Amino acid sequence: GPTKLFIPLQGLSELDKEGGVFFNMESNRRLFSTIKKYHASNVELIEIDAHINDEEFAVAMAMSLQNML
Questions:
Q1: For residues 61 and 5, is the Cβ–Cβ distance under 8 A?
Q2: Residue 9 phi/psi, 5° resolution?
Q3: pTM for this structure?
Q4: Cα–Cα distance between 6 and 49 in angstroms, integer?
Q5: The dihedral sign for the CA sequence 52, 57, 61, 64
Q6: Ramachandran region of residue 19, left (φ > 0), alpha (ψ -120 to 50) or beta?
Q7: What are the DSSP calls for 11-66, one per residue?
Q8: At 1, is the pLDDT very low, low, confident or very high (cuts 50, 70, 90)?
Q9: Which pLDDT tens digit goes with each residue over 14-69?
């Protein structure tokens, strides 16, 4: 079936939020660019300019799932 990978451009965990102990935006950029370069062609990448714990990110994922169902 259809596969989507959501990328939260502003961070992946509570600890890597801006000001957090593991905040390193350059590392995140490198990770995301590697994912974009090597992901399977049948996987749709969806980049969201939000942190993984932001409501905006959760709503985008929930709406996508609802549309797929």
A1: no
A2: -60, -20
A3: 0.87
A4: 10
A5: negative
A6: left
A7: -SSGGGSTTSTT--HHHHHHHHHHHHHHS-TTEEEEEESS-TTSHHHHHHHHHHHH
A8: confident
A9: 998 888 899 999 999 999 999 999 999 999 999 999 999 999 999 999 999 999 99
